[in-house]
Amino acid sequence: MKDTIHLLREKGFKVTPQRRAVIEALLECGKFPTAQQILEYVRKIHPEIGVDTVYRNLNLLADIGAIQQINVRGRDGNVFELTQGHHHHFICLGCGHTQCLDYCPVREKDLEQTATAYEFDIVSHSLEFYGFCQNCRVNRV
């Protein structure tokens, strides 16, 4: 929590009680919570908080690189993860299980060459791999 609060301050943002509650929810709601799960947790502390406030804070935290927003197809909304170094994910299309890939398979040199060719200035990237986990693969047959 301290790292995220430090990052907010470093980027010039206030650490409001609502932001603190969203950060706490990200820590307490399990590995990949949805916005709805975060909202439910935050409302235990701040019953008056609205869904827009939670989404605004999640978007802010994603914009400053404090969290990753992960698109899980076939589910209602995305899931979120406190950033712990740059990495990507395997996501099961059957059950939604998400597994962290502990390295980045994107070759920086290739990416830079392509960006230069398109006159594009990359500031970050996100990559998810979709498929089926072992359990869902077995059940599909």
Automatic annotation (TrEMBL):
Its cofactor is Zn(2+); Mn(2+); Fe(2+). It holds the Pfam family FUR. Belongs to the Fur family. One of its GO terms (molecular function) is zinc ion binding. One of its GO terms (cellular component) is cytoplasm. It is found in: Cytoplasm. Keywords: Cytoplasm, DNA-binding, Iron, Metal-binding, Repressor, Transcription, Transcription regulation, Zinc. Zn(2+) binds at C92, C95, C133, C136. GO terms for biological process: negative regulation of DNA-templated transcription; regulation of secondary metabolite biosynthetic process. Fe cation binds at H86, E108, H125. This is Zinc-specific metallo-regulatory protein. InterPro entries: FUR, Fur_C, WH-like_DNA-bd_sf, WH_DNA-bd_sf. SUPFAM superfamilies: Winged helix' DNA-binding domain. Binds 1 zinc ion per subunit. Binds 1 Mn(2+) or Fe(2+) ion per subunit.
